[in-house]
Amino acid sequence: MASGREDAPQHQAPARKPGPEAELVSVNGTMALLGIGRTKLYELLNDNTLDSVKIGRRTLVRRTSLRRLTEISDRP
């Protein structure tokens, strides 16, 4: 006898690319924006180069810290 779980709809949201209006960016979105890997991203988070917040189990990066990082790297 089936439990009916096979027919239950999945409620997982589809992955979205971060929009320009998003104040918080996911780890995967940040990696894509910066063109870096997960290890380097967590190095930047651990040494406070990038600011993040935890919401539940998710780590989200503040877009303001991404802007600050790119401004620093654009200086001559």
Would you kindly provide a written description of the structure presented here, covering whatever features stand out?
It is a single chain. The protein has 76 residues and is an alpha+beta fold. The chain has a domain at 23-74: Orthogonal Bundle (Arc Repressor Mutant, subunit A). It is 38% helix and 16% strand. The protein has three helices and three strands; from the N terminus they run E-H-H-E-E-H. It has helices at residues 27-34, 38-46, 63-74, and strands spanning 24-26, 52-55, 58-62. The protein has a three-stranded antiparallel beta sheet. The protein is elongated, with a radius of gyration of 17 Å. The mean pLDDT is 84.
Q: Could you name the CATH class of the domain at 23-74?
A: Mainly Alpha
How does the major sheet shape up?
3 strands, antiparallel
Helix proportion range: 25-40%
Q: Termini separation (Å)?
A: 69 Å
- By DSSP (H or I, 4+ residues per run), the number of helices equals 3
Q: Which topology of the domain at 23-74 does CATH recognise?
A: Arc Repressor Mutant, subunit A
Taken from the alpha-carbon principal axes, the silhouette is elongated
Pattern of helices and strands: EHHEEH
In the CATH hierarchy, the architecture of the domain at 23-74 is Orthogonal Bundle
Structural class: alpha+beta
Strand percentage lies at 15-25%
Write out key terms for the chains shown:
Arc Repressor Mutant, subunit A; 38% helix; 3 strands; single chain; 76 residues; three-stranded antiparallel sheet; alpha+beta
